[in-house]
Amino acid sequence: MDAAFTAEQDEIRRTLREILGKRCGPDEVKAAVRTTAGHDRELWQQLARQLGLPGIAVAEEYGGVGCTPADLALACEETGRALLPSPLLATAALCVPLITALGTAAQRSALLPPLATGTLTATLAVSGAALATALALTGEDASGLWAGGGRAGGVQARADADAAGGGWRLYGEAAQVLDGHSAGLLLVAAHTGGFARSRMLLFLVREDAPGLVRTRQAVLDETRPQARIQLRDVPAELLGDEGADVAAALAATGRTVSAVLAAEAVGAADRALARTVEYVRQREQFGRAIGSFQAVKHRLADLYVQVQAARSAAYYAAWDPDQGGLALAQALEALRVTAGEAIQLHGGIGFTWEHDAHLYFKRAAADELLFGPVHRLRAHAADRAGLFTDPAAAVPPGHRAPTAHTDTAADAAADTAADPAASPAAASASTAPPPPFPPAPEKVAV
Fold it and tell me: Where is this chain compositionally biased, Low complexity type (predicted)?
């Protein structure tokens, strides 16, 4: 594996950092999130035209750039540095992979080109606060119980016999939908078939669908706007066919999303650290810059090491998305610690709610609530790697797992019958007490 960035990737990074440096400062971010859309539409179109940013994950045959997940992660590292409020994550990282994997040829041809050009934005709507579970970031749930499980709650779907060509109707509610108030297309996870034969499917809902109610929510991190989606007998189109493996597609998308989010968090942590270093060089106390004090230097050095370790993990996950869970956990932790230290090292001004350092702290807290928490990300990664496998499951066929009691004669006979190589002598040797410790060496006077 060649981990070096190509010239094209370096150019994407340089151009994106230059544009965002001019158009996406802290004041511009605060102004953009208070607009109706929750982001700067003009800047979004500029990024789409000049860099093809929303089309990075779209294949060339559908008008996209056709890049790898590593390119998308690299771009999101720069957007994370600026805390760019945009529909990039929901559109390119969540919806494009699902439409590509599950959609029919007609659906891909109709949806992917406008998504690639940025004229259409999309988002994934799941019921409750279950986005991390739906993407298999914090646990496996192939049954889709997080979406309602066929019981009351969640989003339910039923076939519409009156619709031409066979349609669907959705009823229910989904909270905490990223960019749900402004997205032109919703991918809604819903259950159909009743409780006995319940199965989870994805449906396409247009923004102008009758019965669709979208309410923007007040959230901790305004740079990630969220909405509550209410579906009141809304007409919908099935994404793909009824035999699609939706859980597998969501899990595959979750692996890519975790790598992208890790890179984004690393970018935010790196920028928060850089701003803090710049501040401690200028702020003076007792006639000298506070950055010259050894205690401050040590704290900043620890932050630098943690951010660089998270960056290495994020880059590795960009090439191998299966490692995205651990990379995301490390990156979110690095962002939380760095943002918290930034507030501390800015002193009294840093504790004011309006200070720019709180933008990074809010992003850290909100991302961990949406896609974590960190300890569950690590626990799920450990389960997938089999680090805490039950020892009894590893016992070869025909053998019994070791127990705490002493073998009886019947147990020994059963062992001998199951394994002819086992003998009473060997069994007695295995249960014999361990040899005594060797005597301690005598002390020699020097």
Answer: 401-431
